[in-house]
Design goal:
The complex is a heterotetramer of chains A (149), B (278), C (337) and D (276). Chain A is α/β, with parallel strands linked by helices. Chain A has helices at residues 18-27, 49-57, 78-95, 113-130, 134-142; strands at residues 9-14, 36-41, 62-67, 103-107. Chain A has one domain (9-142): Rossmann fold, CATH 3.40.50. Helices cover 24% and strands 31% of the residues of chain B. The longest helix of chain B is centred in the last third of the chain and has 14 residues, at 213-226. The chains are: A alpha/beta (149), B alpha/beta (278), C alpha+beta (337), D alpha/beta (276). Chain C binds chain D through residues 31-33, 53-54, 63-64, 137-138, 229-230, 232-236, 238-240, 248, 250, 252, 261, 263-264, 266, 269, 271, 316, 318, 320-324, 326-327, and chain D through 29-31, 34-39, 57, 61-62, 161-162, 164-165, 167-171, 173-175, 187, 192, 195-199, 202, 223, 226-227, 229-231, 233.
Amino acid sequence: MSEPFEPKIVAFVCTYCTYAGADLAGTSRLKYAPNVRIVRLPCTGRISPMFILKALQKGADSVLVSGCHPGDCHFTAGNYHARRRWTVFRALLAFTGIPEERIRFSWVSAAEGAKFAEMINEITDETRKLGPFTQYQELQKVIETQSSY
Amino acid sequence: MIYSPFPMRVVSKRAEAPGVNTLKLEFVKEEDHEFFKANYKTGMFGLYGIFGEGESTFCVASPETRKEYIECTFRQSGRVTSTLASVDAGDIVTFRGPYGNRFPIEQFEGKNLLFIAGGIALPPTRSVIWSCLDQREKYRDVTIVYGARTVADLVYKNELDEWKKRDDVRLVLTVDPGGETPDWQDHVGFVPTVLEQAAPSPENTIAVLCGPPIMIKFTLAALQKLGFTAENVYTTLENRMKCGVGKCGRCNVGSVYICKEGPVFTAAEVQAMPQADL
Amino acid sequence: MTRILLRNKLDDCIAAWQKAGFSVLAPVRRHEMSSFGEVQKASDMAFDLVLPERTIKDHFFPQTEPLIKYKISKHQIDSETMTPPDQKRVFFGVRPCDASGLAIDDPLFGWDYKDDYWFKRRENSVIVTIVCTEADDFCMCTSVKLSPDSAKGADVLLRPLLNGAGWQVEAVSERGTALLETISPLLQENSEPTAPLPQVAEKFDVEKVMEWLADPASFESQFWKDIALRCVGCGSCTFLCPTCHCFDIQDEGDTYQGIRRKNWDSCSFANFTMHTSGHNPRNTQSTRWRQRIMHKFNYYRGKFGVNSCSGCGRCTRQCPVDMGITETLQAISTLPR
Amino acid sequence: MGIQEQYRSEAAALLSSGEVKLVIGFGAGSTADRRRPLFARTPDEAQKFVLDAACIANLSTYLVTEGLLSDGKKVAVFLKPDGIRSINILISEAQLKPEQVVILGYAIENGKEITPLEGRNISDFSIGEQIRSLTPPPHILQEAERIEEMSATERFEFWKEHFAKCIKCYACRQVCPMCYCRRCIVDVNQPQWVSTSSHTLGNFEWNLVRAFHLAGRCAACGACDRACPVNIPLRLVNYRMGKEVIDAFDYCAGENSNQKPVLASFKQDDPETFIL
C-alpha cells in the first residue's frame, strides 16, 4: 500500500436541517474534509437502515446519519421516529460486530454550519485512525471470485 | 458458455403504443449473427437483457425471412423491460437465443392462413405473417384478424396500413367497445365476435392464434363454432423463464417445458395440458 | 480376496491424493453444521454422521455462482464469462443417496444445452461412496428403488469392514480405477467380512404412487389441498435436496459493473412462477407442493427415465412443520382408488 | 380427563356448534418425538389432536395465512404463552381481529408437564408480567453474554461464520408469525435493497434486515431458530433486540394487545446518548 488511506464517508442527511447546515458551512467558507459524500433526503424519518447497509456494501468506511434537532422536524416527528430506529439498529450492528465508531448519528441544525464542518473533520480523522473497514469490504471482494463453496 | 448472451447494438427504437416499444437490434459480432441466421425459425423466442438489470423473455418479432436484424416488441412492466424501454440507438443490450420450437410453416404451404391476434400478442403473430407474406406464392388466402383494447393500443400501425392496402391480404381490425376514436373506420367489438362475423372458412385453413389467455379461451370456442379443429389451430404460450434452456425449472405446464417443447403448440396440445397449471 | 483400505492409512491416502493434485472433501462438522468440506487429515472427517445436513450437490451446483462479470460504459459493454475452477477433487465418504443425486441430475444439465458449470465440476470430481451401516427414521432409499449400498453415481465404492478397521475397496468406474492407482501401495489384500447393511424399511409403493400421479384426474385432486395446508412455503426441503436443481439468474452490482449470478431458487416460493403482470400459474402452496411431487415422480421420469429423488429423507428430516416426500407419497400410495 | 382429551372434545364442540370454522392444533408426527400442525374442520378430525410436551411449535403463524380470516369467521388455535404473545402483537399491528381467534391455551413446564390455561379470548389472558420476567433459556443467555464480551472484530467473525452457512431458504421468515408482509423486502427488486444471492455478504444483509424488522415485535417463540436448517443461532440476535427495546424504551412486545408498536411510536424524552 503506497497510497495513504483516505476514508470514504457517506452522510445521509435531512434536507431541512443538516443539509442546510452543510450549505452554511460551505457559504461560510469553512473548510472540512472532502472525504464525505452527502446524500440528501427529505427527512431522517426517510433514512432506512437499508441505506446504511448499502453504503457499507458499496465500500463506505463510515456512515453518518444526521437530521434536525428534536422538536425541529419539518414534518413534526420524523426525527423522533428515526431516533428510536437508530437506537435499535445501532444495537443490532454492535451485536453483529459492526463497530459503533463507524456509524454516527447527529443533530445538526441549519444554523450549525460550524458544527457540521467540525464533526466531519472529526469523523474523518477517527475513521482514518480506524483504517478501512476491510472486514466488511472483504465480503464484497469474495463474491467476485468464483468458488465452489 | 450456456448462459452467456450475445451483445446487440440498438439500431432504432420505435414507440408502438402507450408503454409498448419495438427495438431493432443488430449483432455486434459476426459469428453470433451467423449462428442466429443458421438457427432462427419463426416462433422462436429469446432472452433480451441488459447487464445490471437482468433478462426478460419475449418472442423474436421479425420473420425468419429477414434475419439481418432482430426486432422485439415488449410492454414496459418490470425492472428489465423498463430499462430496455429507456435505451437509445447505439446502446448495447444482450440477446440469448433463439430458443424453443417454431411454427411449422412449410406444413402450411398450399393452405389458407388465418392469423388472429389480440393486443401485444401481434408481435409473435407478425413474425409468422411476414415469414409467409415474404413467400406469398406458397400460400393461398391470408386473413389477419387483429384487435386491441383501444385504437392507441394497436401496435405496428404502419404495417397494419400496409396490409390493409395489399389486395392479397384480408385485414380485419377491431377495437374493444369504448376504445374507438371518432374517426375509427373498422370494427368495434371483441375479437371472438368479430371473428365470427368475418366467418373465415375452415376449409384447408390453418389458424394462428396469439393473445391473452382470456381471449384465447373465447376465440378457440369461436373457431370451433366456425368448424376449425384444434389440430389446425396454432398458438403460443408464455411463462416466467430464467434460463430458456430447460434447466431452471419454472416454465413447465404439467410436464411440458414451454422453453424446450414450446412456445408454439397446437390448440389440441394446449388442451391436453393440465389447465390449472396455465 | 479383495482389496481393503485401513482407517489408519487414511492420512497417507489423503496425502497421496493431494500430491496427485486433488483436494479432498469429506463430511465435516463446522460451525454447528455438517456438510462436505475440505479436509487435510482423517481426524477432520465426521464419520459418525448417518448423513451430513447439507448435500454434496452444494459442490456441483453452488447456492450462488457467478456466471458473467460485466463493465458498462456508454456504448460499450465488456463482459467476461466466469468458469468454475479447474481444481480436481476427491469426495470421500459420500453416501449412496447423495452420489445417486448427482447421477440423477446429469441428464437434466445435459438436456440439449450442456450446462458447463455443472459438468466441469462433475468431470473434475471423483466420488468415493461409503456404503451405509446405519440408517435413521427418515432414510428411504429403498422406497425409491435404491439401496444403502447403491453404486449409482459412485466412482469408488467402499464397504465398511465388520471389525471397523477399514473398508473393502472397489472401483466402479474408470475414474475410480485411476484414483485407486494413486493409492495402490496403501491398499492391501484381505478377506475380512464387511459390516451388514442397515434395514431401511420400504415406506411406500413408488410404483403405485407413479401410477396415481400419471392419472390426469389426480392433478386437481383435493388431496393436494389437504396435504399442503401446513406447508409454510420455505425452501429448506428443496435447498437440502440432493436432486433439486431449480435456479434463478440475477444481476448484482451497480450502474457500471457487476456480476450475473446463478442462484438457487425453489418451487416452494410464491415468486418462483410469478409473471410481471401479476398472474401466477402456481399461486397457492398446494399447487407448488403438487409441482414438486409431480416434477420428481412424474415429469422428470417422463423426460429422463428416472425419478428425481434419491431417498435421502432430508426434506422430512429438516422440515420445520414435519412435511416431506415420505409422508406425501405414503399418503398417495394408500389413497383409495 | 387429561388435557389432550379435554381439548379434543372442546375442539370438537367448537366445530360442531359452528362457532369456529377451523381448529389448528397438533397431530402425531413422522417420528415418536415429532408433532405436526393439524387442521381440523370437522369434529371427527378433532379426535386426531395430540397435546403433550412435544407440542412446541407456535401455530399462530398460520393465522396470518393470506385469506384465512377474510371471511370474518372464527378460527381456534392451540397456543402456548409465546403464541398468545404473538397474537397480542398481531392484534396491536392490526393484522388480526381479536374476536376471530379462539385460544386453546396450554403451558409446558420444565419441558414435560403440560397444563391448560384458563380463558378462550385474547382478553382473558394476562401474560404481561410473565413475559417481562421471562428470561431466555440459560444457554442462550450465556451465549449472548459471551458474544457481548467479544471485541467487535471477534463478533463480526462469529456472525460471519454463521451467516456464511445461510442458504436463504427463508424458513426463518416463513415460520415467523410476525413475517406477514405480502411482499418481503428481499423480494422487492426495484430497487433491489438486499441481494438475493446467498453469498456471505447477501446473507449478512438479509439476517440483519430480518432481525431489525423483528426488533420490538419478536415473541421469542424460537420458531426461526428451530426452523433454520443450517443451525444459525437466530434466537441470540432476536433476544438482543428484545433486550434493547426493554432497556431503551421500557417496551416489551406482546404484553397486551393495546400496545402501540415500539418503532411506530416515540416519546420526546427517548434516550439519545449516542447522538452527536
